[in-house]
């Protein structure tokens, strides 16, 4: 298999892993709406991270991967505290104080911050296609947010919490990228989730009190959030992130609003309006632009000293003026004579 084929196969695998992530993260919004009615923001985050940490640590023991190298711990700790812990609590809390449209628009500055931080701190650069695609996707996210906005007043604290969630999300992902150079995606995800769980332990009293009163459906949704959108989706995210840039991975998450609209239509009987569908299509278009690659220009044809392109030699090409002289003797008419075979004499 050639190097180009190997690279294309790795990119296809990373894109498939990112697809699993965005589908499960989109499903999380549907489950959060159910569980969030019976669990407070901190308790919901703690229960979700606890279920996810149990699954991830069990898989880690089965695979016998052990502890990550020392060089990976700074990124794991930072992403665990900010992304697994801080982001989930801030987002759960913020969505209680602002309408869904405002939350969607504010939180979606996260991928833009991710691309900027990745280009600056990780030296990933600022590709024009990536920035253009993210601008289109962000416009689509704004359209989706406006379409589902309830029109209620937005609390300044709620907006601030959504901004905090977006910043925590971006910084957590950018911190996770260097850790993946030293540890496996499973190690980075498992220990990041475990650190996030520890960071949320102050909410354990609320979780214990609310479990007794919450219906079974809300508790099952919390477990689902921990097993699939956390344990599985964060693992596939880390796998894909280890094989591409933080900016391109961030742009992929703009598919989530479109999927949320479709899932709400299917599972919650919330028929999307034309504005929501148009915004979702803008998100998809922006992701396609951001993940596209410019065509590699063909190498120029070599030129001769005279400046003309060299052509392949042909059978009818005229002999060059600098061609080696014919070693055969010439006849008086200028035609070369046949060589004389050795061991034979010509007739006299």
Q: What is the average per-residue confidence, as pLDDT, rounded to a whole number?
A: 79
* Number of helical elements: 13
Task: Report the biggest beta sheet as strand number plus sense, adding barrel if it closes.
Answer: none
Spatial separation of the terminal alpha carbons? 68 Å
Report the C-alpha radius of gyration, rounded. 31 Å
Helix content: 55-70%
Regions with little confidence, pLDDT below 50 for 5+ residues: 305-324, 329-348
Describe the overall structure:
With 348 residues, the protein is mostly helical. It has one domain (10-291). Helix content is 67%, strand content 0%. It contains 13 helices and no strands. The chain has helices at residues 3-35, 41-63, 73-94, 100-107, 110-121, 128-148, 156-179, 185-199, 204-213, 216-241, 246-252, 255-267, 274-291. Helix 1 (3-35) packs antiparallel against helix 10 and helix 3 (73-94) packs across helix 8. The longest helix is centred in the first third of the chain and has 33 residues, at 3-35. It is globular and about 60 Å long. Keywords: Membrane, Transmembrane, Transmembrane helix. InterPro entries: Alkyne_AA_exporter (IPR052756), EamA_dom (IPR000620), EmrE-like (IPR037185). Belongs to the EamA transporter family.
